[in-house]
Amino acid sequence: MLAPNEAFCVSSLAALREVNSLKSSMTKTVAEATLNSFVAKGWLMKSRRGRYSLSTRTVLELQTYLRTTYENEVIECTICMELVTRGTGCFTPHCKTRMHTHCFNHYRRRNNACPSCKEDWTAGNNLTKLRPVGEAAFREGQDQRRRARRRSTEEQEDGEGDEEEDAEPDGSQEQEQDGGVKEEPPSQPNGRGKGKRRAAPVEEVDDEDTPPPRTQQRRSSRRG
C-alpha cells in the first residue's frame, strides 16, 4: 500500500528486507516461507517479475482495515467507489479519476471523456497517455527510494526518542537533589556518635585522678 507511483506492489527482495524492521526474531528464510504461504492461501499475488501485491480477496476482506490504516494511500474507483490496486487512471495532472480495469472497459463502451476532468480520451493519442495503476506503474529504482524514505522516517523517530531521553535526566537530577536533602538528617546521629567517642577519654582522666587518695593513706600510716 505504501509503494510510490500507485504501483501497490513490492519486489521479493524488498519484502524480505522488511524483516529487519520487525520486532520479532524472524529470519529471512522463515519470512520467505511465510510469503509463499500467503500466496498459496490467496492473500498475496506474485507476478512473473517476482513482485508481490494484494489479492482481490485481501482487498475485499480487509477493506475496512486498509481504509483506516492507509487512509492517505488508498485510492477509490471513480465508478464503483471500491479500493483500486490495479487498473487505469486519467493522465490529466491533478485529476483523481481511477478505475478498475473492468470498470474502465465498461465505461469506455459508452463514454469517451474522463468523468472528472472531461478530457477527451479518444483525441489524438490520449489513450496511450492513460496512466496505469498497479504493477504496470512500477518504475525501476522505486524500491531503493522507498528504502531511503523509510530510513529517513526511522531517523526522525530515533531523534524524537533521543530528545525524550535527554529530558528524563532533568527529573532524575531533581530526585537526586531531593534525595541529598533527605540524607542530611541521618548525618546528625553520626555526629552524636563522635561526641560519645570524645567523652570516653574524659572517663579515663577520672581514673587517673584516683591514685592521690591512696598516697595520702600511706602518709597517714607513717605518721601513726
UniProtKB/TrEMBL annotation:
Alphabetized Gene3D superfamilies for the sequence: Winged helix-like DNA-binding domain superfamily/Winged helix DNA-binding domain (1.10.10.10), Zinc/RING finger domain, C3HC4 (zinc finger) (3.30.40.10)
Function: Acts in a DNA repair pathway for removal of UV-induced DNA damage that is distinct from classical nucleotide excision repair and in repair of ionizing radiation damage. Functions in homologous recombination repair of DNA double strand breaks and in recovery of stalled replication forks.
Protein's name according to its UniProt entry: Non-structural maintenance of chromosomes element 1 homolog
Reactions performed catalytically: S-ubiquitinyl-[E2 ubiquitin-conjugating enzyme]-L-cysteine + [acceptor protein]-L-lysine = [E2 ubiquitin-conjugating enzyme]-L-cysteine + N(6)-ubiquitinyl-[acceptor protein]-L-lysine
Comp. bias intervals (Acidic residues): 155-177
Domain RING-type: 77-118
E.C. number: 2.3.2.27
Source species taxonomy: Eukaryota, Fungi, Dikarya, Basidiomycota, Agaricomycotina
Subunit annotation: Component of the Smc5-Smc6 complex.
Cross-referenced Pfam families: SMC_Nse1, zf-RING-like
Stated family: Belongs to the NSE1 family.
GO terms, molecular function: ubiquitin protein ligase activity; zinc ion binding
Subcellular location: Nucleus
Alphabetically ordered keywords of this record: DNA damage, DNA recombination, DNA repair, Metal-binding, Nucleus, Transferase, Ubl conjugation pathway, Zinc, Zinc-finger
UniProt region (Disordered), positions on chain: 132-224
First-tier enzyme category under EC: transferase
Gene Ontology CC: nucleus; Smc5-Smc6 complex
An individual GO BP term: double-strand break repair via homologous recombination
